[in-house]
Predict the 3D structure of the following.
Amino acid sequence: MVFYDEMYGLDAKKQSALAHYGAYQNWVKSYSPAAMDVKRAQADAAFRQVGITFAVYGDDAGTERLIPFDLIPRIIPSTEWATLQKGLIQRVQAMNLFLHDIYHDQHIVKAGVVPAEQIYLNAQYRPHMQGIDLVNNNYCHISGVDIVRAGQGEFYVLEDNLRVPSGVSYMLEDRKMMMRLFPEAFSTMPIAPIEHYPDLLLETLRASAPMGVDEPNVVVMTPGMYNSAYFEHAFLAQQMGVELVEGKDMFVDDGLVYMRTTQGPQRVDVIYRRIDDDFLDPLVFRSDSGIGIPGLMSVYRAGRVSLANAVGTGVADDKSTYPFIPEVIKFYLNEEPILNNVPTYQCRKPQDLSYVLANMAQLVVKEVHGAGGYGMLVGPASTQKQIEDFKARVLAKPDGYIAQPTLALSTCPTYVESGIAPRHIDLRPYVLSGKETKLVPGGLCRVALEEGSLVVNSSQGGGTKDTWVLQNQYKAGEGGAAC
Amino acid sequence: MLSSTADHLFWMARYIERAENSARMLDIHLQSSLLAGGRSESQRNQSAQAVLLISELIPAFEQSQKNQSKTNPTSQNEHISDAVLRFMVSDPNNSSSIYSALYSARENARAVRGAITTELWETINVTWLKLQARLENDAWMQDMPAFFDWVKHRAHLTRGVTAGTMPRDDAYRFVALGTALERADNVARLLDVKFFEGAAAELLDWDAKGEYYHWAAILRSVSGFEIYRKTYRDTITPARVAELLILRADMPRSLLAAMNALCNHLNTLANKRSAHTLRAAGLLQAQIQFANIDDILEHGLHAYLTQFLARINAIGKGISQDFLEV
């Protein structure tokens, strides 16, 4: 099977690089393998010193681990990025309109585009949000949209992350590391900057402040330092210059949210919360949550505190809702989707279910509420027994699963034990919705380090790469090889 | 700032200071037990006991020895002095060991890494990472003075990075407050190493040769030997050492210097609840500022230091109640 390669396209021999990798190839020649080993060791030491680590659940051995970082960047030419950017903005705008509609007049249900049960029987639907007006009608202030390239090189949206998408700190730290290790690369190639992401994020959060608050007090809310993404929560709070708070640092009094400070209570206006809906308010959601703020939802519903992202966005990024999104885009924007969905079989449909059961060995089957690579089966990479076990799970609860053809995910050259070898990758750009919808040129590129593996999640042994969006096309002749 | 953040900053600073002072105290113990002419085994053991006594750790140490002899009978043959050093340096079960102090400093820093500068966080994180390498296979025991020096230098570096990179806001003041409070406590304990057993009478009638080294070691442990020489231009006497370490505002590790820093930062941080704590701290500062060393010695230095420690402890509790546990 020939996989599309980011550096070599469909050239199976991997000899002539695509034009946008030309300058990179020319430049990287100046590094011997030994010099690259030195750079890798430097990167490892630096990540440890900075303490860029993540925790893996259910893993006692190392509560703090480094995410493997790869030195070879993923490069995206400016024309491709222009399409991606348009498609991402279109998709996220439609998602915000969709969520507003779901929680207000449900035109889309009345029009018969999305069945009522898909929304109201969805575990992620939050009746508490019905009829509540949000600032700028924004629900997903921060969206992480997972993009893959497959087949002959076309892009697909693999999934939408509209609840608490994580990973953006790695995007920023990977860039910082590349600039530290290879400063000359950035002076010779027109690599679009992404370092202003925290500024855009702060602008987005400030734009979401409750009515009448001119100088909002923005905070980042974390479940605590033992959360797997704690580093990122602290990082973003620091980069934006706002307080990092836990539920116990805040309380509700007289219809407002306050935080406990050394000078007494101080009002909180915007909460960039990095905890799930279920844990936000023990009086409304899970009563055993010790990390939420009792009474928060009453203040939120009264419009006196803003949450980013809004409560109840899960109904739109759920894997069972995903197949409807192209129609959702057409319905609200009256436009054709710029970015395609991966064809998806919905096991709740009897016809799809029997296809999935018969062809599971060729499919990727996903739990609709699963995340982070947990609860999924990659057919071609599984044993007969694993497949049989999964079949039983799907049969027991067909509406809990969807299936997709195993995509021939694109590869990118990557440093591995044996040298440089192609490994499968994806891309997660972060789209911000404040007064307008925007994003920085780039995203988190995740790479499956195991040969042949298609699972890029860090919890499953994935690594990351810096992503370079080139600001303009290269002049012919400047690159190392002809296109 | 957030009360919980202030709490982490305060304790982060206290643990760094505690690790440094433990290293200084263990260094004196080591130096006194290696004095020229050699000391008898019982003297070495006495010195080791004193180390435990001033940290109020004798019961904890005995318990740990009991547990060890159960799991590892050969450890019984270890010299008591080495066992104490190991207990005070690398024992993760001893919450006062250098290991535990640097671990706690790093965990507190990690909890507020957004509230401190990146340089400060990295300094504390690297200290923790390097400590583990130094403790591995008891490598530190090969050259203990070098290890204690390293701990001191990491604490110097941490304070330097704090001074050089942190904005002078409340976060900085809570760090400074923690440092001052812990230093006042630790230096008082360090001074007590000598005095816990003795009365003032012993001071007046001292055996110059043997005692000289002891007092010189105490001075060196607080980087005070050269300051002493410059200040007094005279031979070392216990009364002057006590004066230098308690009453001199220009001696950076004296009790008065620590109290001056503590009151200075506390006054800036004052809030609606803190009047009582401010008064207690101000009173203690004033009483040291206008004290006379002869009066203190007449009263008994050990009794004086014991009372000082109780009052410092009360001030620490007051700070927690007024600012950190709101």
About this structure: Chain B has two domains: 1-165, 173-326.
